[in-house]
Amino acid sequence: MEKLYKQLKTVGGFNIAIGVILIVFGIALGILNIVSGASLLKNRKNILF
Q1: Alpha-carbon distance values, 44 to 39, 40, 48 (Å)
Q2: Closest CA to 35 of 24, 23, 27, 45
Q3: Phi-psi region for residue 48, left (φ > 0), alpha (ψ -120 to 50) or beta?
Q4: What is the residue-level pLDDT of the chain in tens, covering all 49 positions?
Q5: What is the spatial distance between Cα 44 and Cα 49, in angstroms, rounded to a whole number?
């Protein structure tokens, strides 16, 4: 039974670490998306269709 608890503790810690990494990655991509969109809006007069 103790072996099971150790394994659950390890898996739980791993899941929390992955969750934090995904949140940071999502925030970083969101910021890059906003910056990219702002630069497109800034230069929209130079875009020809």
Answers
A1: 8, 6, 9
A2: 27
A3: beta
A4: 889 999 999 999 999 999 999 999 999 999 999 999 999 899 888 877 6
A5: 11
